[in-house]
Amino acid sequence: MSKDTKPASTVEPPRTLDGQLCFALYSANLAMGKLYRQLLAKLDLTYPQYLVMLVLWERDGITVSDLGERLFLDSATLTPLLKRLQTAGLVERTRGKDDERQVIVTLTAQGVALREKASDVPVDVFCATGCEVDQLVDLKGGLETLRAGLIENNRR
After folding, report:
1. Which of 115, 146, 147, 154 has the fewest CB atoms within 10 Å, counting from its CB?
2. Percent of residues, the chain, with pLDDT higher than 70
3. Chain centroid, CA 132 distance in Å
4. Cα–Cα nearest to 110, from 23, 43, 32
5. Rg for the chain, CA atoms, rounded
């Protein structure tokens, strides 16, 4: 839907704070961030570091550019984050053998071992939501659709 296209509904869009989708997303994000800070403190990880680790636990030995695409982060944001993870002994960064412009990120033994310590985080988050599994699956799908629409709109 473009700016010039009105929603099919004849209902006037909400103009109050509590009626705004952006505020619902923002305040939910704040609450989720607070929960993750508590859960990740015992792992000595920030939420962005945790996201990087999740990607690496799925697929070790990924390029920084692929990691950035997967997380919707640019290299200016990702590089300092990766440096901190490397200093913590969780990852290594090496130049690509075929293309030295590429930087490959791999888990260390300590980074691999952290996966087991972090295994309860998704369960703890699920329990904290108070939602049923099917509610969260539907919500996640809706948010992914929303994100895709917003990304597409920003490309125009």
Report:
1. 154
2. 94
3. 21
4. 43
5. 19
Whether residue 4 has pLDDT greater than 60: no
Indicate whether 7 pLDDT > 70.
no
User: Which residues, 6+ apart, have CB-to-CB distance to 129 below 8 Å?
Assistant: 136
The end-to-end CA distance of the chain, in Å, is 12
Closest CA to 127 of 35, 42, 24: 35
Q: Exposure pattern of 122-135 as b/e (b: 16+ CB <10 Å)? A: eeeeeeeeeeeeee
153 residue type, one letter? N
Bridge partners (DSSP) listed for residue 62: 105
Q: Which helix (H) or strand (E) holds 63?
A: strand 62-63
d(CA 104, CA 96): 6
SS3 97: coil
Q: Where are the alpha helices (DSSP H) in 43-87?
A: 47-58, 64-71, 75-87
- Residue position matching structure tokens 């990087």: 52
